[in-house]
Design brief:
Length: about 400
């Protein structure tokens, strides 16, 4: 068993022992939503969330929103932007955006976030090559502008449910994970939601890093020099689980009446943004001839970026799958991921109408596809017999989420 999985398992057992011995009240299910990074491919999880929210509305009425049902929403990069939209309050202290609004957001704003260069092949290649050598591919001005409109000058402590958004500080060379819990406890961690959303989306080679400052209670400034959280946790599921365990252990979480906490007391929905089909476009013989520029840019792709993103996401899924399997709680962890993207759909920044509709179709096909789990030996997703389609699994999750919310309202 990998060392970090052992640590997480021990933490779960410790938390279970701690809470059970505290004589606390009736067990609560902890609910978690996690959304991967992936640029314009965020349309895929947005499509899945639209379906889930529709099912919740069928059960609880048209006012139901995703943030009403999840104790924690974690998101990295484009997933962090979605997390912000799901959790930011409007003037009535209700979610400002529906899940369907988020999907429509991509269709309207993605072409301006990722403006497409001329399709004349030669000029396009030259522009891309020189653009990525001398600076980021996009200036990020539109992304920053729209993030500030979404954030509405709200800070992390204002979110309607707890959020977890990873970033990475290039000055300190360490991850910085922004959370609602920390923002409520430490003034200097209560950053603007817009600054956090911009930071977690600042993918190297695509957007410039984002710099901002916060102040502590005594006026001391804290500096942040941040890039895309995907370099540390493109799939933030494990970050979310570990954070919950820590908060419960120190007795600070809002659901401190939990009798015990392990995989059987958690309901985790993890949504991927898709990964390219294993076309084996990179290999050792070819990469042996690469220099610095080739690792950053090779035939329209960024090998080093692809490697970090896929490795980060896959390792998390393997670890979490192993954890829930060891606790006989596999059905409490639903990971929906497309691992067969081809052509433009595998890109993070091709925001043409045609490609965005193709990504929406990927999300719809996933709904009709069978529930799959990662094979711990091959890393490939394999269909699971007897668990139906992803739409059926999400419908089951909707029922469980609705039941848990009603239980809490009437306890």
């Amino acid at each position: 068993m990998p060392p970090n999985l052992i640590i997480l398992s021990l933490l779960m057992m410790t938390v279970s022992t701690y809470t059970a011995s505290s004589g606390l009240s009736k067990t609560t299910i902890v609910t978690v939503l996690s959304i991967d990074g992936g640029g314009v491919r965020g349309i895929i999880p947005a499509t899945l969330l639209s379906f889930l929210e529709f099912k919740l509305q069928e059960l609880d009425g048209p006012a139901a929103r995703i943030s009403d049902y999840f104790d924690v929403i974690a998101g990295t990069s484009t997933g962090g932007l979605m997390t912000t939209m799901l959790a930011v309050p409007g003037d009535d202290n209700r979610p400002l955006y529906t899940a369907n609004d988020i999907k429509e957001f991509y269709f309207y704003h993605a072409p301006k976030i990722f403006p497409q260069i001329s399709r004349i092949e030669f000029l396009n290649k030259v522009a891309n090559f020189f653009g990525e050598v001398v600076g980021p591919k996009y200036d990020g001005n539109y992304l920053r502008s729209i993030a500030r409109k979404i954030g509405k000058n709200r800070t992390l402590k204002h979110t309607l449910t707890d959020v977890i958004i990873p970033t990475f500080d290039i000055k300190r060379l360490q991850p910085v994970i922004f959370t609602t819990d920390d923002a409520k406890e430490f003034v200097w961690k209560d950053a603007l939601l817009s600054d956090v959303a911009i930071s977690t989306s600042a993918a190297p080679t695509y957007f410039p890093p984002h710099y901002f400052e916060t102040k502590d209670v005594d006026g001391t400034k804290r500096r942040f020099d941040l890039i895309d959280g995907g370099v540390a946790a493109n799939n933030p599921t494990q970050v979310a689980i570990t954070h919950i365990m820590k908060e419960i252990l120190i007795g600070k979480r809002k659901f401190s009446d939990i009798e015990s906490i392990d995989g059987r007391r958690m309901l985790v929905l993890s949504l991927g943004t898709g990964i390219p089909k294993r076309s084996e476009k990179y290999n050792a013989q070819r990469a042996a001839r690469w220099g610095l520029l080739n690792w950053v840019f090779d035939n329209g792709s960024s090998p080093i970026f692809d490697i970090y993103n896929d490795a980060s996401s896959d390792m998390v899924d393997i670890h979490v799958t192993t954890l829930f399997r060891s606790l006989n709680a596999e059905r409490n962890y639903l990971r929906i991921q497309e691992d067969n993207l081809v052509g433009d759909t595998s890109s993070v920044d091709i925001a043409t109408e045609e490609n965005m509709k193709a990504l929406e179709d990927v999300g719809r096909r996933l709904l009709n596809g069978k529930v799959s789990r990662v094979d711990l030996e091959t890393g490939l997703f394999q269909e699971v017999e007897g668990e139906g389609t992803n739409s059926e699994a999400l419908t089951r999750f909707a029922r469980l989420l609705s039941q848990e919310r009603k239980r809490r309202q009437h306890k």
